[in-house]
Amino acid sequence: MNRLVVFDLDDTLYLERDYVLSGFRAVDNFVRRELGVRGFLKDVWSRFDAGQRELIFDRALEARGLAPRLVRKLLAVYRSHAPHIRLCPDARRFLGRPPEGVAIGIITDGRLPAQRAKIRALGIGRLVGDIVITGRWGARYAKPHPRAFLWMERRFGVSGSACAYVGDNPSKDFEAPRALGWSVFRLRRPGGLYAGAASRGVPEIRSCDELRERLSLKTRRSATTSRPSSPHEELSLPEGAGGGGGASKGRAARTASTHS
Ligand SMILES: [Mg+2]
To answer: CATH homologous superfamily of domain 3-15+87-235?
Structure first.
């Protein structure tokens, strides 16, 4: 194993809106059963679909004249539900048959129980070498903090240009790995929550199939040249991909989503 490819989870390996819909359904079942409220799913989903990302449950309760304190219970139902989500087909292909000599890891932010439930539902624990949920160390170690990336380097015994990170969120996914000399790829999936965000100079791919092509291209290049013309080309990093990105703390605790 001489190279390492680490993936983000939400909107990189599966579509987060599927998780949100799954959670909303669990909450809808709860309010129908416990409170006799109907139509909750339609309400919260239309808010989410319109771009609302925070206080969705608060506003939906308010619209029905229900006690604001119920939001804590609804969030607990949302965050602890067993999600119905699936790997994107290209992600399944890549993880099921990674390129030769490439170890696979995952670094994801978010609350431990929710991220663990997603990992269980996706069945990816057996497909990847290791997974870091930064929430296990506390919120201050969420991306763009470098701790998880340094942890992966030690775990797999590789560093810098032998490593690549694939994520979807330009505001936090790429700053730390780029500072460590990793290659980075922005996977921009249609339907992704950050699909419309500005790219900040990170090379883009549309699928994990394209990632495989990029890695393969580099392997062929390495076989015909004695050394890379730039240390950033180890994993086929295009020109202009260096430099820092902005930091973000993710969304507030009451957002409908559980990752950041
Ligand atoms: Mg993501």
So the answer is: HAD superfamily/HAD-like (3.40.50.1000)
